[in-house]
Design goal:
The complex is a heterotrimer of chains A (445), B (382) and C (308).
Chain A: H1 5-21, H2 24-30, E1 42-48, H3 54-70, E2 75-81, H4 83-95, E3 102-106, H5 107-115, H6 136-140, E4 155-160, E5 163-167, H7 168-173, H8 185-199, E6 202-204, H9 214-225, H10 248-263, H11 276-284, E7 288-293, H12 295-304, E8 310-313, E9 324-325, E10 327-333, H13 340-351, H14 353-359, E11 365-366, H15 375-383, H16 387-394, E12 397-398, H17 406-422, H18 428-444
Parallel strand pairs in A: 1-2, 1-3, 6-7, 9-12
Antiparallel strand pairs in A: 3-10, 4-10, 4-11, 5-7, 5-8
Helix pairs in contact in A: 1-15, 9-10, 9-17, 10-18, 11-12, 14-15, 17-18
Chain B: E1 4-13, E2 19-29, E3 34-38, H1 45-53, E4 60-65, E5 68-69, E6 80-83, H2 95-105, H3 110-124, H4 139-151, E7 157-161, H5 169-185, E8 189-194, H6 197-203, E9 206-211, E10 214-219, H7 221-226, H8 231-236, E11 243-252, E12 255-259, E13 265-271, E14 280-285, E15 290-293, E16 304-314, E17 317-324, E18 329-333, E19 344-349, E20 355-358, E21 364-365, E22 367-368
Parallel strand pairs in B: 3-8, 3-9, 6-7, 7-8
Antiparallel strand pairs in B: 1-2, 1-4, 4-5, 9-10, 11-12, 11-14, 12-13, 13-22, 14-20, 15-19, 16-17, 16-19, 17-18, 20-21
Chain C: H1 2-16, H2 19-50, E1 53-54, E2 63-64, H3 68-75, H4 77-110, H5 115-127, H6 130-141, H7 147-154, H8 171-197, H9 200-208, H10 213-241, H11 245-250, H12 262-272, H13 276-307
Antiparallel strand pairs in C: 1-2
Classes of the chains: A alpha/beta (445), B alpha+beta (382), C mainly alpha (308).
């Protein structure tokens, strides 16, 4: 589960050398995708950049250079956005009746557009794929909630889950076993207090900033672990109709946050205005012992401060379950796109195991699970820190609210609820009740 | 009662004092005296005024007021008032606001202030303008407000920095009279800076002529006019410039003959003391102290042959400008008014009214003013 | 007086100018006017139009809803909190900008040596980008490791670190301080330029009239600077009113909307909740408030400025 600095640097060097010298054409030939070179017509694609993951960016550049090369007669247009630019751009262009033929969006954005009926159904069989290729949660994110037909309005491109990352030196200084993950959230709170008491540093990096997606991404796993939910996302099938955020699980999770911030004061005092980047900075400086992080966060921390002794493990479990937000992206096709041949060709290329593995970068994993055994994945494994942990974590993934109003609930309702408790404005019960009222109002409107 | 004395006051600027604004100056101003500092622009007269006011600290020397050293005293505590060239009226205040400002700053009660403002406005004819803003006034009106603001608090010393230079000629003459009248009415020690010699002559008890940071001559206007101690004063003072010509001094018997470069005899004078043989000097004669004729007459003075180049008309008078061969262009008051350009004439100087200056130092060479004189033709004071 | 002069001038102009030269100025103005219409008038009109429509997240279609968006804005308690924050933010920032800017301008203006370097140093915050400034101050305010808390605890001014940005009472003042640091150099620059046009002789005259430095400042310098002050205050107020970056980066508007200002609020409505109609309605309400403020401001202070 851990990796020394030397091993990491050597692996990274070898892999980058391989990428640099390997002829791109040769990869594809060795793989699974045979381009139709006589493809004509047009295709417009919007994607968002994997930056700051330099490996991921290099793969995207290679792919978007390679694909049109395979189709010399195709008029291929691609636009690369930044992560935060993409949503407003898509929103405005779809509302204006335009938009690209193909767009890749984060999971959290998919449901909104699916609800607004702007996407074309996708037939996996026509692409030579089946539902078995993907995580079940991933397929949920491209379906309409409660639709018995199970029609897919997109196709998962990459999926990931977060994990717990910690600083072994601080664990040691607090007399904790540096190789041992806190098993439960309760254990995590005890660890945090112990680290804070012994070292003076924050035990756990709490993210509770307002209007920031990092906040709910880190709170929801705790809530789910205690059996709480926003709607009924823990039940099968999920209806996304029943509002459950005022349940005892949410209250217990809020209690845990309150214990960390107000009772033990074992987290950083700036938690209320810290996003993940701020916590990561503190972690880099040895000021925070544990944080919830993506594999790419760990890789970045390692490259910025190699002297940090990194370790990673599963997120703690709660009395009900172990859970994590099921993350990733989907590729969608605009409704009314008439160039389905061209679209299918692009999807086949993107989902082909080698490209799907490479395009996942270091921050995610291929959505097509066949890619887990592709030659490209073997190269990628050498670069990835703790990839085994995140793979193991995906099975515990729970989806974000797959409703059109999800963005408001996720970025506004949940952070407000947390801040009320941390600022002692209301009790956890009251905060959860007010959050439920807010969710109901948003869903009614 | 305010007697002002400058002792070796000088001012230098620049990091090492390399720019001399004012050479060390000694000057005593009597109580109630109206003294004018006269000089071309950039001669240091404004600097001197600012040093007196305390707005600029002097580099050397000290300033005394009634026997007290005020060199380091803050301008606020000197009780001096100043009228600036551009009046420096407070633009956001009405005429009333400007007039009462110095009283307000002295804590004069409101009722007393109002009385004195009314009084001063009456004296200056500003009563109907009291509620106007400065920019709604004409130049002359602004000038009167500035005078009023300075006078209203009866300062011990009244400083004026070219107060009339922004007015047109007619208004200037009018305001000159007004200032004279005010000084008679309020006999405050006044230091008046100007570059206009006519103003200086008309207004002052005494005139101090300055040039390049040096105080050249101090004296009553008549003395400055008639007995310039320096070639600069001679050239600067006078409505029409004095003729200044380079001459060679040639000893003849007990007198000295002044010869133009072309060898013509200009005038014969007697000097105190003995001049060196063949010395060079500058001869000065005011145009009013020269006359011309179509041909020389035999009256004992040298007649200088010259050719008329131009006729210069200044007001009611006209001046003949005539060139001496290989010599200077001379200006002669044309009493007859019959000369025409191109005409050959002869010019004669009034020996009693010529000045000689050392060519090197510019200082006046004392001349004994009796040489073959034609009596009874003493020129009038201009 | 000004009006009289203008009318007289126009009268002369109208009598003498032939038709062509009266038309030509409008011809020259046309391209700029057209550009302005495209980039300002059209988006503004479009926002007003949009504010009467529901733009639901579950559909791409617009439906006319009349004033429903406006009612929704006025029904949101956060809106009032945010307006209140914005007024405090704008007023406090602008006032502090002017006071600090004036002090700095006077100090620089009276410097005899090193004027250039000092002025450049004081201008530095203005040159620094908003994002850079926000992150720098974020870390200055950081409770455990920030310079401010660190220094105050080390000097025993406070017993324990104060989490400025997480405090309900202190977050907004802390952000205002950052904003003032960032914007006061603009006031300094404007006032310094203004000070240099105040005739030195006015100040000399006031000194000779026995005015203290304090009275000279209030009676001579401030009236002379008044037009510059009015314009600077207006520009700063508008700039501060439209601020976005500092709260966005430093607190995200938190804690609990205590440091959220109107630009953040509208941005969230449009791009987080993706409710464009609601965001347009809020924009229109704010525009109306701003317009009312501008009219009053120009009526009251602008007239004073022209009288001077």
């Amino acid at each position: 589960m851990t990796m020394t600095r030397r091993a990491f640097v050597e692996a990274a060097g070898a892999a980058l050398a391989a990428v640099g010298t390997m002829p791109v054409r040769g990869w594809a030939a060795a793989g699974d995708y045979a381009p139709r070179r006589d493809l004509t017509g047009e295709l417009t694609v919007w994607d968002w950049s994997a930056a700051p993951d330099t490996y991921g960016v290099a793969q995207q550049q290679a792919f978007y250079h390679w694909f049109p090369e395979q189709h010399p007669k195709l008029r291929f247009r691609m636009t690369m956005y930044g992560y935060t630019d993409m949503l407003p751009k898509l929103e405005v262009s779809y509302r204006g009746g335009g938009g690209p033929d193909v767009a890749r969006t984060a999971i959290a954005w998919s449901s909104r557009f699916i609800a607004a009926d702007v996407f074309q159904p996708i037939d996996l069989a026509r692409l030579g794929l089946s539902a078995k290729n993907f995580w079940p949660q991933a397929l949920q994110t491209v379906q309409k909630p409660g639709d018995p037909s199970g029609t897919l309005y997109g196709i998962p491109s990459n999926n990931e889950a977060m994990m717990l990352v910690w600083n072994k030196a601080l664990f040691r200084a607090a007399g904790l076993d540096p190789a041992k993950t806190p098993d439960t959230w309760d254990d995590l709170a005890s660890y945090s207090k112990r680290i804070h008491d012994k070292t003076g540093q924050a035990g756990f990096g709490l993210v509770a900033k307002l209007n920031n997606g990092n906040t709910p991404f880190r709170f929801a796993p705790v809530m789910w672990a205690y059996g709480g939910s926003i709607f009924d996302e823990l039940a099968t099938p999920t209806t996304w109709k029943k509002v459950g955020i005022d349940g005892p699980g949410t209250v217990a999770a809020l209690d845990l946050y309150n214990r960390l911030f107000n009772v033990d004061k074992s987290v950083e005092p700036s938690a209320l205005n810290d996003a993940q980047a701020d916590v990561a900075t503190l972690f880099l400086g040895g000021k925070v012992a544990m944080m919830i992080a993506h594999p790419s966060d760990a890789a970045q921390a390692h490259s910025l401060n190699p002297s940090i002794e990194l370790a990673a493990g599963l997120l703690p479990r709660g009395p009900a379950r172990r859970a994590v937000v099921f993350g990733g992206s989907n590729i969608h096709v605009r409704k009314g796109a008439s160039n389905m041949d061209q679209v299918d060709e692009f999807l086949r290329a993107y989902e082909s195991p080698n490209w799907n593995a490479r395009l996942a970068g270091l921050g995610s994993n291929p959505a097509n699970r066949v890619a887990e055994h592709a030659p490209a994945q073997k190269e990628r494994d050498k670069l990835l820190l703790f990839n085994d942990v995140t793979f193991e974590m995906i099975q515990y993934g729970v989806n974000v609210p797959l409703v059109a109003q999800g963005a408001h609930i996720w970025n506004e309702t949940i952070p407000t609820m947390i801040q009320k408790v941390l600022l002692k404005q209301t009790s956890p019960q009251q905060a959860a009740a007010e959050a439920a009222a807010d969710v109901r109002q948003v869903m009614r409107a | 009662m305010a007697e002002l004395r400058l002792e070796g006051v000088g001012k230098r600027y620049g990091g090492r004092g390399e720019v001399v604004a004012l050479e060390p100056v000694d000057l005593a101003v009597r109580d109630g005296e109206f003294i004018t500092i006269l000089g071309p622009s950039g001669c240091g007269k404004t600097t001197m005024l600012h040093v007196i006011a305390g707005l600029v600290p002097p580099s050397t020397g000290s300033v005394w007021l009634d026997g007290t050293d005020i060199t380091d005293l803050d301008p606020r505590d000197r009780d001096m008032a100043m009228v600036f060239q551009n009046y420096a009226l407070y633009p956001a205040k009405t005429v009333r606001g400007n007039l009462e400002f110095p009283l307000r700053m002295r804590g004069v009660p409101r009722r007393e202030r109002a009385r004195r403002v009314e009084e001063m406005a009456h004296v200056l004819g500003l009563t109907p303008l009291l509620d106007r803003l400065p920019r709604q006034l004409s130049g002359g009106q602004q000038q009167r407000v500035a005078l009023g603001r300075a006078l209203i608090r009866r300062p011990r010393v009244f400083l004026m920095d070219e107060p009339l230079s922004n007015l047109d000629a007619k208004l200037r003459a009018q305001m000159r009279g007004e200032i004279k009248r005010l000084h008679r009415q309020f006999p405050i020690t006044t230091i008046y800076v100007t570059h206009d010699q006519a103003e200086a002559m008309a207004l002052s008890d005494r005139v101090a002529v300055m040039n390049r940071g040096v105080l050249v001559q101090v004296g009553p206007p008549a003395e400055i006019y008639h007995r310039p101690s320096h070639v600069f004063v001679a050239g600067f003072v006078g409505a029409v410039p004095m003729n200044l010509a380079r001459v060679r001094l040639h000893r003849v018997e007990d007198a000295v003959e002044c010869l133009f470069p072309g060898g013509q005899r200009a005038v014969r004078v007697r000097l105190d003391g003995t001049p060196p043989a063949d010395a060079a000097a500058v001869l000065g004669v005011r145009p009013q102290h020269a006359r011309w004729a179509a041909r020389p007459s035999d009256d004992g003075v040298p007649w200088i042959p010259a050719v008329v180049e131009d006729i210069d008309i200044v007001g009611e008078e006209s001046y003949v400008l005539a060139r001496v061969e290989h010599g200077p262009l001379l200006s002669v008051l044309d009493r007859a008014g019959t000369a025409a350009p191109g005409q050959s004439i002869a010019i004669a100087f009034e020996p009693a009214a010529v000045h000689l200056f050392d060519e090197a130092t510019g200082h006046a060479v004392p001349v004994e003013r009796v040489t073959a004189a034609r009596r009874g033709d003493s020129p009038a004071y201009p | 007086m000004g009006a009289v002069r203008t009318a007289a001038y126009d009268g002369i102009h109208a009598r003498r100018a032939p038709l062509l030269s009266r038309v030509v100025p409008y011809v020259f103005v046309c391209p700029a006017l057209a550009l302005l219409l495209v980039v300002t008038a059209y988006p503004f009109a479009y926002s007003v139009y949009l504010s009467f429509f529901r733009t639901p997240s579950e559909s791409m279609r617009w439906t006319f809803t009349g004033l429903a968006n406006y009612r929704a804005v006025f029904a949101d308690p956060v809106f009032y909190r945010v307006v209140n924050n914005t007024v405090v933010w704008t007023a406090a920032s602008t006032l502090a900008d002017l006071v600090l800017g004036m002090i700095a301008a006077l100090a620089v203006n009276n410097l005899r040596v090193c004027r250039g370097p000092v002025r450049a140093a004081l201008l530095l915050p203005y040159v620094v980008g908003y994002v850079v400034a926000s992150y720098a101050w974020l870390w200055l305010y950081q409770g455990d490791y920030g310079l401010i808390d660190g220094t105050l605890t080390a000097w025993h001014v406070i017993a324990a670190p104060i989490p400025f940005l997480s405090s309900l009472a202190l977050a907004l003042p802390a952000l205002i301080l950052t904003n003032v640091w960032k914007t006061f150099p603009f006031a300094m620059l404007m006032l310094l330029a203004g000070l240099q046009t105040v005739p030195e002789q006015l100040v000399m005259a006031a000194r000779l009239d026995r005015a203290s430095s304090w009275r000279t400042f209030w009676e001579i310098t401030v009236p002379a600077l008044w037009p510059v002050l009015v314009v600077t205050a207006m520009l700063l107020a508008l700039q501060n009113f439209h601020s976005f970056t500092i709260p966005w980066i430093m607190t995200g508007g938190g804690p609990l909307h205590r440091s959220e200002i109107i630009a953040n609020y509208i941005y969230n409505q449009a791009f987080t909740q993706l409710d464009f109609g609601l965001a347009a309605a809020t924009s229109c309400i704010i525009s109306a408030l701003l317009l009312a403020f501008a009219v009053v401001y120009v009526r009251v202070l602008g007239r004073g400025a022209s009288a001077r």
